[in-house]
Amino acid sequence: MLRRLLATGLLLVTLAAPASAQNAAPPAVGVTVAPPLSKRIKAWDEYSGRFEAVARADVRARVAGFVEQIHFKEGSLVKAGDLLFTLDKRPFQIAVDSANAEVTRQEAQVKFAEADVGRAEPLAATKVLSEQVFEQRKATLASTQGQLLAAKAALESAKLNLEWAEVRAPISGRISDKKVYPGNLVAGGQADATLLATIVSLDPIHFEFEVAEADFLRYARLNLAGERPSSRETGNPVRVKLADEDKWNREGKMDFVDNALNERSGTIRGRAIFDNKDGLLTPGVFARLALFGGEFNAFLVPDSAIVSDQAKKIVFTVNAENIVTATPVVLGQINEGLRVITSGLKPDDRIVIEGIANPAVRPGAKVDPKPGTITEPKH
Fold first, then answer.
1. pTM of the entire structure?
2. 123 and 116 in contact (C-beta within 8 Å)?
3. What span, in angstroms and rounded, lies between the C-alpha atoms of 58 and 194?
4. Could you list the mean pLDDT of each consecutive 10-residue stretch along the chain, which spans 379 residues?
5. CATH number of domain containing 308
6. 35 and 93 part of one domain
7. Which of 59, 67, 76, 271 is the most buried (most CB within 10 A)?
8. Of 111, 144, 164, which closes a domain?
9. Where in the sequence is the domain holding 301, given as residue range(s)?
10. Of 141, 164, 187, at which residue does a domain stop?
11. Which residues does 102 contact at the CB level (< 8 Å), separation at least 6?
C-alpha cells in the first residue's frame, strides 16, 4: 500500500511539471543594438552614359589625284603630321616646274623694264625723251613687277598642291580602316571631297550623359546657396566605372553643361573629361558615372541591418520597453561600406545590428539588448 501511494505521488509530480513549464514566459532573445552613425558625407549621384572622342577628324585630300601609296596600318595609333596617303605627284611637280619657269621669265622682264626706265630717266630730264614716253616705260616696269608677283604666287600655290599630294594626319589618335585603295581616283578640295579615313583622339576622352530636370534644379539651388558650385564654372569631381568594374577607380572632372534642356526627354546634357593614358577608354563604350552632388549630414547603418518588407525597406529598432519595432527608412548611397539613410531614423534610435537573423526577433517581440557601435569597415 505504501509503495502504491509513493508511485501515485511521483506520477502527479511528473504530470504537473510540464504544465508549469508551458505557462512560463520564454526568455528574451539577446541582440546587439546601436544608434545610427552620424556623419557629414559627400553625395555622389550616378548616371549612365558613353565615352566620346574629344576630337574627330575625317581625313580628306585637298587636291584631286590618283592614290599611289598608303602608309598606315588600319586601326593603329597615329600622330598628328604622320604621312597617311601619297597621291601621284607628277602632275603637281610639272605645275611647280612650269610656275618656276614663269617666275624666271617675269624676272627677266622686270630687269629689262628696270634698265629701260634707267636709260630713259636722264633723257627725260634733258627733254630729249618726251614725258609721255618716259611715263609709259615706268608703267611697263610696274606691270612687269606685278606679273612677277603673280607668277611667284602661282609658284607658291603649285608648291602647296605638291605638298598636299601627301595626305597627313590632322590630329593624333586611332585611325579607322582605309576607304580607298592604291589606284583609286579621289576628289579633293571641296565639300564633297573623297573620305579617305577617320581618326578619333583617345587621350584625354570625354564622357557624355543626361541629367534629369529634378537633379539639374537641385544643383542650381545648391549653387545659389553657395553649397556646391555650378559645373559650368567649376570642374566638379566625377568618377567612372566600366561595365566589368565594381569600383570607382577612374577620376575626372566636369567639362561642360549644355545651355538648354531637351524638351522631349526633360534632361540636360553634361560632359566630363578623363585622362586615358592606358587607352582602355574607347569612344562609344558604356559606363556609369558618379558626379559630386554636394555635402550633407546623414545617418549610416550596416546593409545587414536592413530588412525588405514587400516594397518597403525597414530596420528593427528597440524601444524603451525593449520591444522590437519595424521602422521604415529611405535608402541612399553606399558610403565607406555603410548604407546612407536619407529619412526615417532619429539620432537616439536603437537599431538591431546583430541577432536580426534570429526568427524570434520580429516586431512586437521582447529582446535583451546589449549596447554596440556602428563603425566604418576597415579597408
1. 0.71
2. no
3. 10
4. 44 46 67 90 90 96 95 95 96 96 93 84 78 82 92 95 95 95 91 92 96 93 92 94 90 95 94 94 95 88 88 90 91 84 89 88 90 81
5. 2.40.420.20
6. no
7. 59
8. 164
9. 29-40+297-371
10. 164
11. 151, 154, 155
